[in-house]
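Re-run with default settings, no changes from the original entry. Doing this only to confirm the output is reproducible before filing.
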Amino acid sequence: MEYIRDCRALAQVILSADGTDITATTTDTFGLTSENIFLMPDRSLNYTDENNNRIFLNIPAQLVYRDTVTQQFTFTGLFFSTTAAYSNN
C-alpha cells in the first residue's frame, strides 16, 4: 500500500453529483499510483467556481480501490465549502 505523506501527486478527475453526493473519478489511469489501492489523506483544495468565487473542494480521508473494469479510482463524500475543512497536514 502506498501512502504519500508529502502529497505532490497529481490526478485529473471528473466530478459527478447525484443530489448532494459528490464523487471524483480519476481519468488518468496510473497518475496517482500503479497499485490497486490508494490511501487518500483528507484534503481541502482551493477552487474558483464559475462565478469567480473562491471555494474549497473537501475530500475526506479514505482508502480507495481501483475499479477492476475501468482501472480508475473514485473518491466519495466530497463537499464544497467557503473555508477549508481540513488543514492539509
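The chain is about 0% helix and 45% strand. The two ends are 20 Å apart (CA to CA).
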